[in-house]
Amino acid sequence: MRGREYAELEAFVAVVEEGNFRRAAARLRISASSLSQTIGKLEARLGVNLLQRTTRSTSLTEPGKRLFDRFRPAMSEMAIAVEDVMQLQGRPAGTVRLMLPRLALATQIEPWLGAFHEKYPDIVLELGIEDAPLDIIDAGYDLGITLGELLQKDMIALKLGPDIHQLAVASPDYLAAYGVPQTPGDLHGHKCINWRKPGRKKLYNWEFCVDGRWISVAVEGPLIVSHRDTALKAAAQGVGIAFAYWSSRWMQPMIESGSLTPILEEYSPPFPGWYLYYPKQRATPPAVRALIDFLRHCHQEA
Fold first, then answer.
1. What is the second-level CATH architecture of the domain 3-83?
2. What is the pLDDT of residue 81?
3. Using CA atoms, how far apart are residues 241 and 61, in angstroms rounded to an integer?
4. How far apart are CA 138 and CA 153, in angstroms?
5. Percent of the chain at pLDDT above 90?
6. Using CA atoms in the order 102, 105, 111, 114, what is the torsion angle rounded to 10 degrees?
7. What class has domain 91-163+273-301?
């Protein structure tokens, strides 16, 4: 296979994995028009249409699907082979794609970005911030971070850090004006800040443990958000009661400063926290293995 032919196939795989020409072009560091021309040359050389293009989406034709299913694993094997050779020099290299929610980014990854780059300067770490649940394989990621209760089946999982818990919080002024709820059921008489998980239609029901049994409470209030750090900021301004994961990044400073007060703590026990997960495969690329081992070491030391 000549270099030009491989470049065309690499461009084709990038378009399929990214879902559109703009993101694929950014990944390949070329213009969208150049990428379109490259795909056109590939289709002309093969004599078939590989992609169905509309103004809003790009999808595979049947010949395109057959080519993608056969070539993508081969391309991955070639990348692994190159990385294996570089591993002989003791320096893993290549791109590692990690998908994770915003809160996991803040607590599980951001504190160690500098140390990881210093140790592995030849690895390009791509972070995909996705609060909506996605299949990491279909989305083209190597690894993901999610809560233990949301782990996908048939994945290898590594626990990162301790268990976590959610807390209801409100500003001192709000509690002085409207009273302090004593049980989860009391929330029905309060202004609550609702959360809609990205990608979901229904509002999230707040979860508490009562007499050893988990219950869900549907609440009402003047504000609905898709990111719970916004809910915390609104609660600090007296909008109502928020319910969010305890974190040293967002919640803890607001509690320590006195802008938020925890409530219903006895009904909020810990549960399995964050997990790094990745698919079972015959050979894990060295760069991916380097990130796995690095995060394992960081969280053992923390």
1. Orthogonal Bundle (1.10)
2. 72
3. 50
4. 14
5. 54
6. -120
7. alpha beta
Q: Tell me: the pLDDT tens digits for 12-53?
A: 998 898 888 888 887 787 888 889 999 999 999 999 999 988
Dist. CA 7–CA 123, nearest whole Å = 21
User: What's the CATH architecture for 165-267?
Assistant: 3-Layer(aba) Sandwich (3.40)
Can you tell me the distance from the alpha carbon of 40 to that of 251, in angstroms, rounded to the nearest whole number?
51
CA distance 194 to 158: 31
Residues 6+ apart with CB under 8 A from 71: 9, 12, 13
Residues 6+ apart with CB under 8 A from 301: none
**Cβ distance 87 to 228 under 8 Å?**
no
Q: Helix, strand, coil proportions of the chain in percent (round to 5)?
A: 45, 25, 35
- Kindly list the strands in the beta sheet with 94-100, ordered across the sheet, starting from the edge strand earlier in the chain: 123-129, 94-100, 143-147, 274-279, 155-160
Residue 129's alpha-carbon distances to 12, 98, 219, 254, in angstroms, are 24, 9, 28, 24
DSSP letters of 66-92? Answer: HHHHHHHHHHHHHHHHHHHHHHTTT--
Cα separation of 90 and 252, whole Å? 40
User: Does the pLDDT of residue 83 top 70, yes or no?
Assistant: no
* Annotated domain spans of the chain: 3-83, 91-163+273-301, 165-267
* Predicted TM-score (pTM) of this structure: 0.65
CA R_g for the chain: 24
Nearest of 259, 268, 255, 265 to residue 174 by alpha carbon = 259
